[in-house]
Amino acid sequence: MKLIVVQFFIISLLFTSSFFALSSADSSCGEKCNVRCSKNDRKHEECIKDCNICCEKCNCVPSGTYGNKDECPCYRDIKNSKGGPKCP
Description:
Largest sheet: none
Distance between the termini: 55 Å
Strand content: under 5%
Family: Belongs to the GASA family.
Number of helices: 3
Protein name: Gibberellin-regulated protein 8-like
Order of helices and strands: HHH
Signal peptide: 1-25
Helix content: 55-70%
Keywords: Gibberellin signaling pathway, Signal
Pfam families: GASA
């Protein structure tokens, strides 16, 4: 009986820690993308959506509101369906 309680506790702890790790990653992307898209010429909602997709894929967003894509080659190299850059 004690073994079952211990196993349940360990599984609960692992689940909780992974949930908080995912939540903090998502909020980090959101904050970085808000900065990245703050002065963008594109529609703000579209910029945020694309930036979040790229951030989730690459785990990084270049600093500033424009350029600096060499800081994150994965982010820089993602292309849209027409072959242009996907990430703002």
